[in-house]
Specification:
By secondary structure, this protein is of the alpha/beta class. The longest helix is centred in the middle third of the chain and has 18 residues, at 192-209. It has helices at residues 53-60, 86-92, 104-107, 114-126, 130-143, 149-152, 162-174, 192-209, 244-249, 254-261, 301-305, and strands at 11-22, 25-37, 42-46, 68-76, 79-80, 97-100, 180-184, 212-217, 229-234, 237-243, 311-314, 317-319, 326-327, 332-333.
């Protein structure tokens, strides 16, 4: 893998916005995101379906639908991906940054054997000859834990289990030793045992190679043991960003706290799990003020009238809430509000 400058972000989104034009009106799917990913860092991006998680990184990879418009900056090693032509972007995708898609059956060509799909990546991006490309493909299949890799490499995707197909997609993403991997819900369709294996695989591979990993998921429960930093998205915006331990120990934003309460845990009864009431907002007609206020039990008049900015509420943590740090047990506020802190 090529060397990276540890003093600058690998990926930096600034004022990053994605807007879709539809017959019903404009949808602001991603709204003014500011986000950085450092070399070797693992960042979990969490939130409910429709929060803008996947669209954010589809835009980074140039994979948005034709009715999308992007603005702001998406700098990869200082180079704005939003300004690259499709041909220029092709030289970056797969080689320096790669994506692991949610459904491996849509990411793999059902009519091509695994051997050809993996080796083609190396032939295109690294200029390898067929025999060398296939040898490296086989070695990567073994590295990601595919059993009987010599036999599996000659099979079609439908001949593999879901867990093995997902490992093949991960192997494909890793073949060119990219500096950044984005994994979009990589464990959603897998059973719990395979989920754990896939997360362990990501942890090991990113540690060994120094690759930065962005893990997109709706489930906070899968990120506790793998992420360095957690970014919580709601209605196309970042509403909280913090180190993983700090976020679980003391969520600043009521939406983050609600996500954590909705996670089933082995140390408490099923009845203790609290689903988040209400629905995410309509992005064509978003509510005034804080977008979470219609579902927030702590909302006050200020929350309904004014949208809180994403601001630092303590060192290493940003939150978009007028009254951060809520005691969910007693329902009382503690610490400074953004207003009294002079934000």
């Amino acid at each position: 893998m090529a060397s990276v400058n540890m003093n600058q972000p690998l990926l930096a989104l600034a004022g990053y916005t994605i807007r879709f034009t539809t017959p019903d009106g404009a949808v602001q799917a991603v709204n003014g995101l500011d986000l950085t990913v450092a070399p070797g860092e693992t960042v979990a991006v969490v939130g409910e379906s429709g929060s803008g998680k996947s669209q954010t990184f589809n835009g980074v990879f140039g994979l948005l639908a034709g009715n999308a418009e992007t603005s702001g900056e998406a700098l990869f090693e200082g180079r704005d991906l939003l300004k690259l032509s499709p041909k220029e972007l092709d030289t970056v995708r797969g080689a320096d940054m790669a994506m692991v898609f949610q459904d491996p059956m849509t990411a793999l060509n059902p009519a091509m054997k695994i051997r050809h799909q993996l080796s083609e990546t190396l032939k295109v991006h690294k200029g390898l000859k067929r025999r060398e490309a296939e040898a490296q493909a086989l070695a990567m299949l073994k590295k990601v834990g595919i059993p009987e890799a010599e036999r599996r490499i000659g099979q079609y995707p439908h001949e593999l289990s879901g867990g093995m197909r997902q490992r093949v997609v991960i192997a494909m993403a890793l073949l060119c030793r990219p500096k950044l991997i984005v994994a979009d819900e990589p464990t959603t369709a897998l059973d719990v045992t395979i989920q754990a294996q896939i997360l362990d695989l990501f942890r090991d591979l990113t540690t060994d190679a120094g690759t930065a990993l962005v893990l997109i998921t709706h489930d906070l429960g899968v990120v506790a043991g793998i992420a360095d930093k957690v970014v919580v998205m709601y209605a196309g915006r970042i509403v909280e960003e913090a180190g993983v331990d700090a976020l679980f120990a003391r969520p600043a934003m009521p939406y983050t706290a609600a996500l954590i309460r909705s996670i089933p845990r082995v140390d408490r009864d099923v009845e203790a799990v609290e689903p988040i009431g209400g629905r995410p907002p309509d992005l064509i007609h978003p509510p005034q003020g804080c977008p979470f206020h219609p579902r927030c039990r702590f909302a006050e008049d200020k929350c309904r009238a004014e949208r809180p900015p994403l601001a630092e509420v303590e060192p290493g943590r940003r939150a978009a809430c007028w009254f951060p740090f809520i005691d969910d047990g007693a329902g009382t506020r503690r610490g400074e509000t953004m207003e009294t802190a002079g934000v």
